[in-house]
Amino acid sequence: MIVGIGVDLVDIARFERTLERTPRLAERLFSPTERELKPRSLAARYAAKEALIKALGGSDGVHWTEIEITPEESGRPWFTLDGTTARAVADKGITSLHLSLSHDAGLAIAYVVAEAEGAG
């Protein structure tokens, strides 16, 4: 059963300027591995984290650096959650998260679907 959806759209150039103006922002938003990526990929991951928070219905217990977007061998993006963020997701009964990312024409978008077992 779908228990939440979230979508977020990010202007890549604007996001890159924000990172340049606030150098420590990347440390607060991204894992060390993610910080090595190009700005368009960071923008997509930022959108994914925002979309996840929307799918969860809020940010209680969620910490940005405990959310990492990691690709499967096929390239499909996947959430890797840790710490209080993983507990917050489990506490909501969420058993599966689906993530889609894209970037084109200067924009990055992410769409998240959160699922739980059984009927609500």
From TrEMBL:
- Alphabetized UniProt keyword annotations: Cytoplasm, Fatty acid biosynthesis, Fatty acid metabolism, Lipid biosynthesis, Lipid metabolism, Magnesium, Metal-binding, Transferase
Q: Which residues form the 4'-phosphopantetheinyl transferase domain?
A: 4-87
Query: Which residues are noted in the entry as Mg(2+)-binding?
Result: 8, 50
Top-level class of the enzyme under EC nomenclature: transferase
Q: Which reactions are catalysed by this chain?
A: apo-[ACP] + CoA = holo-[ACP] + adenosine 3',5'-bisphosphate + H(+)
Needed cofactors: Mg(2+)
| UniProt key word Metal-binding | yes
EC annotation from Swiss-Prot or TrEMBL:
2.7.8.7
Give the domain of life: Bacteria
Q: Which residues form a coiled coil?
A: none
User: Mainly localized where?
Assistant: cytoplasm
Q: Where in the cell is it found?
A: Cytoplasm
Q: Which family does it belong to?
A: Belongs to the P-Pant transferase superfamily. AcpS family.
**NCBIfam families per the UniProt record, alphabetical:** acpS, pantethn_trn, PRK00070.3-2
Please explain the role this protein plays, according to its UniProt record: Transfers the 4'-phosphopantetheine moiety from coenzyme A to a Ser of acyl-carrier-protein.
Q: Tell me which HAMAP family the record gives.
A: AcpS
Name the UniProt record assigns to this protein: Holo-[acyl-carrier-protein] synthase
Annotated organism of origin? Microbacterium awajiense
Q: Which gene encodes it?
A: acpS
